[in-house]
Amino acid sequence: MKYFLILILSITPLQLFSQDDPSAQNESELKKNSIHASIGTVILYSTINCYYDRVIFEMGRNKKTLGLLRLGYGWFGGIENDGQQYMLQSGIQREYFEGLLGFSIRPQDGDEALKPAISVGFRWQKPNKSFLFRTGIAYPESLYLGVGFAF
């Protein structure tokens, strides 16, 4: 009986450590929502934009490729005109690369209000951390830098 009790007591701690830790499984996942702002410029044209991103799917090995949906609002200004713009884009994020395609609406342009929107850039965001940094080139955003947070 004494040996049986020693055996049970020695096996019990192993049973406790055999369970999965849910927090360890999510260490490599990015947060699903983010809000970020960016400023962009080329010499005669500037933009200020705010965005909301949502991860809509994950794919690939280790779920490193993410499908994004982005909604945005911003202001642009240049020599010829200035005004507001609303953007809807979708695309992918793979580790540090992000590429999106969509459209922007500029109400002040009347009949030519619908414009293409494309973005190719670098996005730095650590898994399970809130801070993110973006830089790249886009239309209508131009050469841009941005910061934000994920939740």
Task: Write structural notes for this entry.
By secondary structure, the protein is mostly beta strands. The chain has one domain: Beta Barrel (Porin). The chain has 2 helices and 8 strands. The protein has helices at 2-17, 22-25; strands at residues 33-42, 45-59, 65-78, 82-94, 97-105, 114-125, 131-139, 142-150. The protein has an 8-stranded antiparallel barrel. A hairpin with a 2-residue loop joins strand 1 (33-42) and strand 2. The protein is elongated, with a radius of gyration of 23 Å. 23% of the residues are buried.
Structure class: mainly beta
How many strands appear in the DSSP assignment?
8
Helix content: 10-25%
Mean pLDDT: 83
Q: Spatial order of the strands in the main sheet?
A: 1-2-3-4-5-6-7-8
> Rounded to an integer, what's the Rg over CA atoms?
23 Å
Quick overview of this protein structure:
With 151 residues, the chain is mainly beta.
Write the layout of secondary structure elements.
Blueprint: H1 2-17, H2 22-25, E1 33-42, E2 45-59, E3 65-78, E4 82-94, E5 97-105, E6 114-125, E7 131-139, E8 142-150
Antiparallel strand pairs: 1-2, 1-8, 2-3, 3-4, 4-5, 5-6, 6-7, 7-8
